[in-house]
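To the team - zinc ion complex, inputs and output below.
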Amino acid sequence: MISQVVKPAQVLVLAGTHGNERNGPWLLEHWRRQPEALQRHGLEVALVLGNPAAYTANQRYLERDLNRCFSPELLADSSRNEADLQRARQLLTCHGPDAESPSVVVLDLHSTTSAMGNSVVLYGRRPADLALAAGLQAELGLPIYLHEADASQTGFLVERWPCGLVIEVGPVPQGVIQAQICRQSKLGVEAALAVLAAAQRGCLKLPDELVVHCHLVSLDLPRHPDGSPSACLHQALQHRDWRPLRAGDPVFMDHCGKEIGLSLPSDLAGESVWPVFINEAAYGEKGIALSLTRRQSWQVGAEWLPALGAIAFQLV
Ligand SMILES: [Zn+2]
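Output:
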C-alpha cells in the first residue's frame, strides 16, 4: 500500500496582484527586512509579488486582469497566452496547493480608491474561508464583502487555493503609497496569521455570528446612446462605502445637476442596501460605478472551525 505523504505547506502572502496597487508590495519589502512580526506565530510564509511585469509598468495588468484569470476553463485553454494568464499559471505551478513548496492558504493584498477602510473580500461560502473571516472580524471588526453569484466577474485568484481571502484597504489613489494603508494591510495579515496559528493549535474560538455583506448587483453610470456617461456619481455618495442606502436616495448627478435616485427592484423596496467599491477607479472599464449588497448576520456554522483546522494542520 502506498501511503500519501502530505507536504508541509506555507501561507502565501501575495501583493501587487494589480500592478498599480503599491502598498502591498511596499509591505513585502518591509517584511523581508523585518520578518519578526510574520515569524511570531511559527508559520512559514511565502512573500510573493503577484504580477511583477504589471508592477514594473505601474499598471493594473498588462493584457488581462490577473484577478480574473483563475477560472479553470481559462487556465486550461492552451490557445490563450496573454502575459497575465501565463503569470496566473506560473503562480499556481510555483505556489499553488500542488507545487513543490505548496501553499494551502493565500492572503491576497489589494488596495482601492474607494473608502472601504480595512475590509475582507470573500468569493464564496467555503467553510474554511468563512472561519478565517470570522476570526478576522472578531479580532479587528473588519467588514466582509461576499462577492458571489456575479456572472460578469469570475476567475478570482483565491478560489484556486484551498483557503484564501482578499484584504482590501482604501481609499488610496492608484500608484500611491500611504503609510496608513500599509499599516492597515499589515494589521490584517498579522491578524490572519494569528487566526491560522490558533486554528493549527486547536485553540481558535470563533464568535457566534458573522456579519456579511452579500453581493446583490453592480450599477453602471447612466449612459448616452453612444455609451458615454450621462451622469457621474452623486457627491453625497462619494466615500460613503458601507453606509446604508434606500430606494430614492441620490446616487448619480447628470450634466445639468439633476439628481438621479436609487431604484431598487420591488423585492428590495423598503429595505436598506449597503454600497461597496463606490467610484473605484479600476472598475470604470468594467462598467461598475458601485456595487450593492445586503447585510446579513449568519450563525457561525459547526463545520467552519474543523474545515479551517484541517487546512491549518497542513501548515509548517
Ligand atoms: Zn486590486
